[in-house]
Amino acid sequence: MAKWIKRNNVKVKNDMLLIEKLAKVRGIKNLEEWMNPPSISVNSPYKLMNIDLIVQRIIKAIHTQELIVIVADIDTDGVCSTGTMFNYLKELTDNIKYIHAQRSHGHGVETVVDQIQEDCLVIIVDSSSNSVEGCKVLSDKGIDVLIIDHHQIDEENPYATIVNCQQGDYPNKHLSGSAMCYKVCQVLDEYLDIDLADDFLDLAAIGIVADMMDIRNMENRYLIYNGMNNILNLGIREILKQSKIDYQDGITSTNISFKIAPIIGACSRFDKIELALELVTCEDEARVKELVKEMIEMNEKRKVNQKFYVEGAVESIDDSHNIIVYVDNEIDSGFRGLIATDFVERFNKPVFVLAEFKDDEGNIIEYKGSARAVGVLPLKELCESTGLFNLTKGHEGAFGIGFIAENLPKIISFFDDTLDSTDLQKVVQYDLELHSSDIDEMDIKQVEKFSRIVGQGFPEPKFLIKGLVAEEEETKKLGKYVRAIQGANKDTIKIPCEDGFALMKFRTQDTYAKDVEDHFYANFATEIDAIGSLNINRFYHGGYKRWITTKQVFLEDYNIIE
Fold it and tell me: What tens digit of pLDDT does each residue of 525-561 get?
């Protein structure tokens, strides 16, 4: 069983509303501003270094009808960045196009320099601040290079004019590439005395959430809030329509994280990023419908492939060490992180999913791949402390790695010597403890309102819910059951409970919670304590001819009370 930890031991008064208790636990002093961020939260774009230089150069290109070439990055934020700049500038000039590489080719302008032959202005979005050589190649051809980026700058790049929130004194170092593009459009608006930039707040919001920027930052919250309330992009609207998500009154960050981003991301994982780029820049409704249908099918294929990779690998994995190291060159680079995450769930250990690279004589010289941590283990920090890695790039618990082949045994030994059972124990945090009998629909609606903007730095609220009692349910399709296996990929588990509750677990093994089922039929009464998030599910029941409301707990962990 995982270790259950209360996130904060702040005392809350019983007469407080649930949403007020959450705010107290999370240290939020002004709940109204937190949930409805004011415009004062937004920093002036003129605080960004080089913003005037870039805007003036773009305006010059527009006035002289110079060809503008936008270099797209190949993740969701890159797609949204490209959509923002291309659609904005398309209103001002027809002399514009975008180019791109594929995920398997890597990031940066160096992957597309061979596509840039003519005299033009190059605008690189969401990458390339450190692409000194690639920018030099273009500069030597007499091509001006503008970079709109948000990534850390590690070396001086004199061959491009760069606007990047990491430069200078800009207060918010956590903007996404798409939000940076929105900032540039704000200044273009002012220079040209037009009002177009806010039409692209939806893409800025998606980029911030999808790229896992810190959403505790009030400027980010403002951009997300206003972007989610104004979904204007035709392609994004169609994703939501085909996903059966109503966007008329706004969406949630969870809709971005679990619907929009994975569908766009699937294009990247299958080296079909051109579909996502066309989607966010397309004005033809019929074509948009076709694109979204194809992209959703691709995302479903991604899920099937991911499950296939995991199931095929489990039997061959050596779990005798404190870290799981799995090497398979057949796994596409776009799937390694997803599969590593699944392995963490299975083995409850940190995981490396790697590909091997050989020299001309067939000797393995290097490993590269994805790393995922377990619990609150500072895996990236530990890797960097060894001095054995030449690449550790990303977040603390999810990042890319690279090291020379001879270091692999040393790395495994390091983790065997350094970690113990407490390091490997899964930790599940919760915000508040509640009894199931005290939770009504209004409470959950408050939680849903509070959780509208969650993500990096501010996870969705989790609750330790006591007093849940499993019950047998019956449907025509499944007959009588206590534990239903659902979903197209048979990876969703539902456990019905008394008082209108249902425990739900997504993307899991079909054996999950089998002990609940066994316990129920052995004892005919099963009480459960569970940690998870609270949600309302409302649907029309054709058999009963009425609307059914279920109080759902999206499970993190559970414990059967004996």
Answer: 899 999 999 999 877 666 667 777 889 999 999 999 9
Rg (CA), the chain: 25
Distances, alpha carbon 9 to alpha carbons 1, 22, 123, 233, 422, in Å: 22, 12, 49, 43, 21
Q: Which helix (H) or strand (E) holds 528?
A: strand 527-541
Tokens of 533: 């998030």
Q: How distant, in Å, are the alpha carbons of 13, 234, 241 from that of 299?
A: 45, 19, 16
Intra-chain end-to-end CA distance of the chain, in Å: 15
Contact criterion met (CB below 8 Å) for 216 and 457? yes
pLDDT at residue 118 in the model? 79
pTM of the model as a whole? 0.90
d(CA 45, CA 180): 9
Phi, then psi, of 226 in degrees rounded to 5: -75, -30
Q: State which H helix or E strand residue 391 sits in.
A: strand 391-394
- Report how far Cα 466 is from the mean position of its chain's Cα atoms: 30
- Cα–Cα distance between 262 and 299 in angstroms, integer? 7
456/75 Cα distance (integer angstroms) = 17
Distance CA 43, CA 41 (A): 7
Q: Report how many helices (DSSP H) and strands (DSSP E) the chain contains, helices first.
A: 19, 21
For residue 377, the model assigns a pLDDT of 86
Strands of 432-435's sheet, edge to edge? 432-435, 463-469, 527-541, 546-561, 501-505, 492-497, 484-486
CA distance 75 to 394: 14
Residue type, 283: E
- Cα separation of 306 and 148, whole Å? 33
| pLDDT at position 238 | 97
Residue 143: band (very low, low, confident or very high) from pLDDT cuts 50, 70, 90:
very high
Q: What is the mean pLDDT of residues 58-73?
A: 96
- Please give the structure tokens belonging to residue 149: 């980026």
Helix (H, G, I), strand (E, B) or coil at 530: strand
